[in-house]
Structures are given as structure tokens and as C-alpha cells.
Amino acid sequence: MINGERTIQRPLRWGMVGGGRTGQVGYKHRTGALRDGTYQLVCGAFDLDAARGRDFGVNLGVSADRCYDDYRALIAGEIGRADGVEVVSIATPNFTHYEITKACLEAGLHVICEKPLFFTVAECDEVAALAAAKGLIVGVTYGFTGHPLVHQMAAMVAKGMLGDIRIVDMQYTHGFNAGDDTNAGDALKWRTNPLTAGPTFVLGDIGTHLYYLSEVVLPHLKIEKLLCDRKAFIPTRAPLEDHATVLMHYNNGARGRLWVSSVNAGNMGSQRYRFVGAKASIEWSDSHPDQLLYDIQGEPNQIIHHGMPYLEPESLAVDRMGGLHTEGLGDSWANIYLWIAQAIDATRRGDEAFLQAHHYPGIKAGTEGVRWLENCVRSADAGSAWVDFQ
To answer: What domain range is 21 assigned to?
Structure first.
């Protein structure tokens, strides 16, 4: 169980690019990073409006002279300081991820980046090579996979409790974009513009969460081919989609279905995962993150609760609140940030054995998410045709 004890020698000096007062995800990053004393926020370029960003940073407790106008100024101002920043989180629109990540790595800084990581696998491969050459970590904020019951599912699959996996069924939908874009805010405008969002909208924005979580739970399954059908129900969003369905064939013969939508009118936002094996099924939703449905063929259905001693060690090891109390998204993000901090610390110490065994969403996870998106777009653009997964 995680209880707040120090797991690295000292806090990492941490900065943010983006995540300011008007941003949607900045507080999630800070909630995760500042929970366990593994990071200390020392600087930031929080906002495109430099004055607003500086005012915001000061209100967070950052010195005014370390609230910078942009990421270039941040790097220039921090490099060479004895107390300079060591790791930077990037919480900016998709089209900026690649250039900011590269600049930080070239300056010798570790990076924690929003998803989808970049626009292309080629960009991911280039950055992965740069990070390896520099001995630096690139973490990706797949913030839902820190939930303890996600790791309970992974342990149950690995230990054969479900039998051979046959069916993978996943959805992440909400209705917040069901209306037209007449009064759309900036956060939606950049997400539906190919120049700033990349080749997808909801597939990249929320679908990659589903895909990565399935990789955590089912690491042995690999997609052989897929079919993607996507549509913009609000025409002004085309060629990007606000709704998509992806069918997947896996290397063991399993079949998968993934549904993402931001036009599921009336839905407040929910993820649902059901993994069906030859012997049993499990189902988890982020709307009830403390409960896991476990259905064994021929036996009464079970509800498994987080934090209970009957759970697998892999789940109990990442639990924070204990069985009596609810765990939430902030706890999941805290786990993600903790795991990335431990990877950075091990890298600095040259502890390769730890890194080989350690789980965290890194550059490979980010790359595979982009690879999945590339294949989805290739299928959709071919008329929703089956394509071999490349």
C-alpha cells in the first residue's frame, strides 16, 4: 500500500509548460505530482498570455522570476542554475508536444507529456532515440491506469483466472460535444482542427486511454488487423471524428470492439472495460473505480472491492486509501507521477535492473498509442476497410 513514505532520495525539481488557469488538465497534473513529495514545482510557462501565466504561477507559490513567457524562455532561464528544473510536464495542445519535448530533451531535461504523444510514429521513434542517447525519461500521462483495480485485472489475466481471452469490449463516451460548435470554447476548437489536434479528434483524445489500458491488462495480446469507422456528426468537425467504432482481431484469435464518442447525448462521461475469457469475465468502469465485476461461468457473480486483503499483491501495492474509503482519479494520477519519478530516479542512479522490472507509461506506451491511431486513420480513410496492423 502506498502511504506517502519517501521512495526517492529527494523531490525532483519540476516545471510545467501549459496547465494554467484556463486549462482543463493542469490541476490533474499538479494533483498527481505533488501528492507524495516526489516533485517540487519550481518554474513554469503556464499560459500563452504571459502576464496571466505569471500571476497564476505566483499564486501557486512559484517565484515570479521563474514564471516564464514560453517554453524557450523557461529552458534558457533554468539551464545553468544550480537549482534548475530537472523534469518538465507538457500540458499543451497536441501540435506542440513534439517540438517542446525535443527542446527539453536536448537541454537535458526529463519530460512528462500529455497524450496522444505526437502526430506520427516517425516522430515518436526520433524522440525515443534522442531520449535514449541523452539517458532521459519520457513519461506519458495515461492517467486512468493508476487505479488499483486495473492492476487487479492485469494480475487476474496473467494468472489464468479468466482462461484464454476471447472478447475485448471497451467504450469511452460522453455527450459534452453533442451540440454544434457555434459557441465552442478554445479547448474544443483546437481539438477539432487537424492542424492543432492531428489526424483524429475523439480517437486520440479519449480512445488512446482505452487502448493503453487494454495493453496494461492484456500485454500478451497483439492486434493483427483492425477496422475503423469514424464520423463527424457535427459537420464542421470533419475531416476529424466526434464518434468512432474500432473492431480488432488479436493474435490469439480474440475479437475486440472499441467505441468512442463525444456526442453520446446525456452521457456524463464514462469508461467501461469488459474482458471475457474461456472461464470467466471481468468488467470495470471509471464511474465505479472501487468495484470490479467478476463473473465465473456457472457460479454466482461477484463484486470485488479495492483495498481488500483477498486481492492480488499487484493491486494492493498501488492502493492508497484502503478498502473502507473511495479512491478517485487524483489517486490514479498520483500513482502515474510516482512511477515516472521512480523511473527518473533509477535512470539517474543507473539502476537498469529496476528499470527493466518497473511499470510506468513511457515513450514506448506513447508510441504504441500513436501507432494505433495511424492504423485507425488508415482504415477509416480507406472506407472503413480491414487493414493489417503495422
So the answer is: 12-144+336-362
